[in-house]
Amino acid sequence: MTRSGQPGAGIFAGLFVAAPEAVEAWDLYGLTPSDWPALEFKRLDPVKLGSLEAILTSRTYADIVAEERTQLVRNGGADGPWITAVRLALIDALAVLTPDGRAAAARAWADTDEFKVRPSDPPRPRDVGDLTALLAEMAELANRSLRDGQPLYLLMGL
User: Fold this and answer.
1) What is the pTM (predicted TM-score) of this model?
2) Domain boundaries, the chain
3) How far is it, in rounded angstroms, from Cα 26 to Cα 4?
4) pLDDT of 113
5) Residue of 42, 26, 34, 39 lying closest to 94 (CA atoms)
Protein backbone atom coordinates (compact mmCIF):
# COMPACT_ATOMS: atom_id res chain seq x y z
CA MET A 1 0.00 0.00 0.00
CA THR A 2 1.28 3.44 -0.83
CA ARG A 3 0.05 6.82 0.36
CA SER A 4 -2.66 6.53 -2.29
CA GLY A 5 -3.73 3.12 -0.97
CA GLN A 6 -2.59 1.37 -4.15
CA PRO A 7 -0.01 -1.41 -4.28
CA GLY A 8 3.42 0.07 -4.81
CA ALA A 9 6.99 -0.98 -5.35
CA GLY A 10 7.68 -1.41 -1.65
CA ILE A 11 9.37 0.92 0.81
CA PHE A 12 12.87 1.62 2.02
CA ALA A 13 11.83 3.28 5.30
CA GLY A 14 8.57 3.28 7.21
CA LEU A 15 6.07 0.78 8.54
CA PHE A 16 4.95 -2.53 7.09
CA VAL A 17 2.98 -5.66 7.96
CA ALA A 18 4.39 -9.09 7.17
CA ALA A 19 4.67 -12.62 8.50
CA PRO A 20 7.76 -13.09 10.69
CA GLU A 21 9.10 -15.86 8.45
CA ALA A 22 8.79 -13.59 5.39
CA VAL A 23 10.72 -10.86 7.19
CA GLU A 24 13.43 -13.36 8.13
CA ALA A 25 13.74 -14.53 4.52
CA TRP A 26 13.74 -11.05 2.98
CA ASP A 27 16.99 -9.65 1.53
CA LEU A 28 17.37 -6.45 3.58
CA TYR A 29 19.20 -4.50 0.90
CA GLY A 30 16.30 -3.45 -1.27
CA LEU A 31 12.71 -2.30 -1.10
CA THR A 32 10.20 -4.36 0.83
CA PRO A 33 8.22 -6.76 -1.34
CA SER A 34 5.44 -4.87 -3.08
CA ASP A 35 2.73 -7.15 -1.68
CA TRP A 36 3.52 -6.20 1.92
CA PRO A 37 1.10 -3.53 3.19
CA ALA A 38 3.42 -0.60 3.87
CA LEU A 39 3.67 3.11 4.52
CA GLU A 40 6.72 5.13 3.53
CA PHE A 41 7.69 7.33 6.50
CA LYS A 42 11.30 8.44 6.38
CA ARG A 43 13.10 9.19 9.64
CA LEU A 44 10.47 7.46 11.74
CA ASP A 45 12.26 5.79 14.64
CA PRO A 46 11.49 3.97 17.89
CA VAL A 47 11.73 7.21 19.90
CA LYS A 48 9.08 8.91 17.75
CA LEU A 49 6.91 5.81 18.00
CA GLY A 50 7.39 5.80 21.79
CA SER A 51 6.30 9.44 21.92
CA LEU A 52 3.23 8.60 19.85
CA GLU A 53 2.40 5.67 22.12
CA ALA A 54 2.67 7.97 25.14
CA ILE A 55 0.25 10.40 23.50
CA LEU A 56 -2.26 7.72 22.51
CA THR A 57 -2.19 5.77 25.77
CA SER A 58 -1.82 8.69 28.20
CA ARG A 59 1.27 7.04 29.66
CA THR A 60 4.65 8.64 30.06
CA TYR A 61 7.43 7.93 27.61
CA ALA A 62 9.64 6.91 30.55
CA ASP A 63 7.09 4.30 31.66
CA ILE A 64 6.84 2.90 28.14
CA VAL A 65 10.61 2.60 27.74
CA ALA A 66 11.01 1.08 31.20
CA GLU A 67 8.32 -1.50 30.46
CA GLU A 68 9.72 -2.94 27.27
CA ARG A 69 12.66 -2.14 25.03
CA THR A 70 12.19 -1.97 21.28
CA GLN A 71 12.75 -5.41 19.79
CA LEU A 72 15.34 -5.46 17.00
CA VAL A 73 14.21 -8.10 14.53
CA ARG A 74 16.81 -7.73 11.76
CA ASN A 75 20.10 -5.83 11.72
CA GLY A 76 21.70 -4.78 8.46
CA GLY A 77 24.89 -3.61 10.13
CA ALA A 78 26.32 -0.23 11.04
CA ASP A 79 24.55 1.57 8.21
CA GLY A 80 21.35 -0.44 8.42
CA PRO A 81 18.76 -1.16 7.44
CA TRP A 82 17.23 -2.16 10.75
CA ILE A 83 13.84 -3.69 11.44
CA THR A 84 12.13 -3.44 14.81
CA ALA A 85 8.78 -4.79 15.90
CA VAL A 86 6.18 -2.17 16.79
CA ARG A 87 4.87 -2.64 20.32
CA LEU A 88 1.43 -4.24 20.62
CA ALA A 89 0.22 -1.41 22.88
CA LEU A 90 0.86 1.07 20.06
CA ILE A 91 -0.76 -1.18 17.46
CA ASP A 92 -3.85 -1.49 19.67
CA ALA A 93 -3.98 2.28 20.27
CA LEU A 94 -3.61 3.06 16.56
CA ALA A 95 -6.27 0.54 15.60
CA VAL A 96 -9.00 2.34 17.57
CA LEU A 97 -7.94 5.88 16.69
CA THR A 98 -10.90 7.94 15.44
CA PRO A 99 -10.59 10.76 12.88
CA ASP A 100 -10.91 13.35 15.67
CA GLY A 101 -8.37 11.42 17.71
CA ARG A 102 -5.96 11.36 14.77
CA ALA A 103 -6.12 15.15 14.42
CA ALA A 104 -5.54 15.69 18.14
CA ALA A 105 -2.73 13.13 18.22
CA ALA A 106 -1.09 14.72 15.16
CA ARG A 107 -1.07 18.13 16.84
CA ALA A 108 0.43 16.69 20.02
CA TRP A 109 2.95 14.51 18.16
CA ALA A 110 4.11 17.38 15.95
CA ASP A 111 4.75 19.38 19.11
CA THR A 112 7.18 16.81 20.57
CA ASP A 113 10.90 17.40 20.79
CA GLU A 114 11.49 14.51 18.39
CA PHE A 115 9.91 16.45 15.54
CA LYS A 116 11.22 19.85 16.65
CA VAL A 117 14.89 18.82 16.91
CA ARG A 118 15.09 18.15 13.19
CA PRO A 119 12.40 20.38 11.70
CA SER A 120 13.42 19.37 8.19
CA ASP A 121 12.25 15.80 8.86
CA PRO A 122 9.12 14.92 6.94
CA PRO A 123 6.43 15.60 7.95
CA ARG A 124 7.48 18.92 9.37
CA PRO A 125 5.78 19.96 12.61
CA ARG A 126 3.85 22.66 10.78
CA ASP A 127 2.40 20.02 8.47
CA VAL A 128 -0.09 18.70 11.01
CA GLY A 129 -2.49 17.82 8.20
CA ASP A 130 0.15 15.55 6.65
CA LEU A 131 0.80 13.95 10.02
CA THR A 132 -2.94 13.41 10.49
CA ALA A 133 -3.07 11.63 7.12
CA LEU A 134 -0.07 9.51 8.07
CA LEU A 135 -1.78 8.55 11.34
CA ALA A 136 -4.82 7.44 9.33
CA GLU A 137 -2.59 5.17 7.26
CA MET A 138 -0.81 3.95 10.38
CA ALA A 139 -4.22 3.08 11.83
CA GLU A 140 -5.04 1.09 8.67
CA LEU A 141 -1.79 -0.84 9.01
CA ALA A 142 -2.47 -1.48 12.71
CA ASN A 143 -5.90 -2.85 11.88
CA ARG A 144 -4.40 -5.02 9.14
CA SER A 145 -1.78 -6.30 11.58
CA LEU A 146 -4.43 -7.28 14.13
CA ARG A 147 -6.81 -8.74 11.54
CA ASP A 148 -4.13 -10.86 9.84
CA GLY A 149 -2.32 -11.80 13.03
CA GLN A 150 0.96 -10.48 11.60
CA PRO A 151 3.32 -8.04 13.30
CA LEU A 152 3.70 -4.40 12.35
CA TYR A 153 7.33 -3.53 11.76
CA LEU A 154 9.40 -0.37 11.55
CA LEU A 155 12.03 -0.32 8.80
CA MET A 156 14.82 2.25 9.23
CA GLY A 157 17.85 3.00 7.14
CA LEU A 158 20.45 5.70 6.57
Assistant:
1) 0.88
2) 14-156
3) 25
4) 85
5) 39
